[in-house]
Amino acid sequence: MSNKIYPIGIQNFEKIRREGYFYIDKTALIYQMVKTGSYYFLSRPRRFGKSLLISTLEAYFQGKKELFEGLAIEKLEKDWIEHPILHLDLNIEKYDSLESLDNILEKVLTEWEKIYGAEPSERSFSLRFAGIVRRAYEQTGQRVVILIDEYDKPLLQAIGNGALQNEYRNTLKPFYGVLKTMDGCIKFGMLTGVTKFGKISVFSDLNNLDDISMREPYVSLCGVTEKEIEDNLDLELHELATAQKMTYKDVCAKLKEYYDGYHFVENTEGIYNPFSLLNTFKYNKFGSYWFETGTPTYLVELLKRSHYDLERMAHEETDADVLNSIYGDEQPIPVIFQSGYLTIKGYDEEFGLYRLGFPNREVEEGFIRFLMPFYTRFNKQEASFEIQKFVREIRAGEVEAFLHRLQSFFADTPYELVKDLELHYQNVLFIIFKLVGFYVKAEYHTSEGRIDMVLQTDKFIYVMEFKLEGTAEEAMRQINEKHYARPFEADSRRLFKIGINFSSKARNIERWIVETEE
Description:
Elements: H1 13-18, H2 27-35, E1 39-43, H3 50-61, H4 72-76, E2 85-89, H5 98-116, H6 125-140, E3 144-149, H7 153-157, H8 162-181, E4 186-193, H9 199-202, E5 210-211, H10 226-232, H11 234-243, H12 248-259, H13 274-283, H14 297-305, E6 317-319, H15 320-324, H16 332-338, E7 343-348, E8 353-357, H17 361-375, H18 380-396, H19 399-410, H20 421-436, E9 441-447, E10 450-456, E11 460-468, H21 472-481, E12 494-503, E13 508-517
Parallel strand pairs: 1-4, 1-5, 2-3, 3-4, 11-12
Antiparallel strand pairs: 6-8, 7-8, 9-10, 10-11, 12-13
Helix pairs in contact: 5-6, 6-8, 11-12, 17-20, 18-19
């Protein structure tokens, strides 16, 4: 029996070490980072261990050698010097007004001023911050360490509210600028966040920050590698296999399918989501642990506002400039990439293009399910139930039933979507058939106002052609003339050919034709 205590939801390094929680040693990388630079920025998805990284750095710069006993850094570090530390965590506030950011900055500056003193002439947040840094250095004789966790939380929560976001930027830009202006008093500085969006405006003066988000040496600084699982969790893998009535090999494959697949740099090893991984080992059960702890509503708003074609998400191509220099409220894909819902799947070295896609099954299924209430009339609970019935009807060969159900997904299409009805109908079909594809084999292709699709179960094959502003007869003619059913001529399963027309006047599927071949 494993006796590991998993640090789920625990982000304090000292608590983890003193109370015997399971810890995967990242301290060799931390030592390398500290000794080869002074100012860093790291972007990683939520619940990926960023706060624990900041807490580990805090313990290291406090000189708490005893916490690192048995870890790699114990043999590497010789001095263990204590530095004054200014730690700002922006994760603890809800940012919905200008005062919410002002309040947290006021609170933390007041706490630091109680320790290092204040000057009446320092009236702005940035002047007070700079004064605290200078006095901390002068009073202790050691340069200051500045750690800022979730630097972008206010900006993220203000997506969709341009005026508030600008106010936040105007407050944070001079505040973060202290990291450059007070360089002579600073030993080390690190900022973490989910996104790099707003980097140009918030960090425009901070050209001394080393962005290691897409740097190969630091890909595994947060998250878990396959080797770390093998080295630290082999017994637990066997226990998970037993609990799930699976072989060791199959349980490793399922763990990889569900939680691996994050690639923050091209051609590097995959990184497992630590939150879902540890929950799976704690409860010996697979689940959507990471996805269920957060609702990416702001991402869906970005997708809708930019009239994004969802099908592109599964094979989006972009370059490093787009991924690295983000105005997050204008382009949805970079923010979705940095938030962990897309990752690097391939890289074209000649043209410098990244191919993006969903990292794993947990994220893909979770994100597509989450989209449905935003694009159809069904709420979250209804949507899951409707997909379940849809799959059962497909498996049972109940063509009319599942076509009527398909119609229901388009009912009550909001009038404002009519002006971009083709995109709306493509997006709804993509969501539905992507979800169906988790249960039956589904192929989906789009081009110029038409969609063709093939669904396969153990007993039935459905070859479907969708037309927009055509006729069901035209759709059927396309199936026959293009010989879409030819690959299945020798197949013993029952074949349905279905031509469907979508009408902008009806704002729904207007008519369908079904031909069947035994």
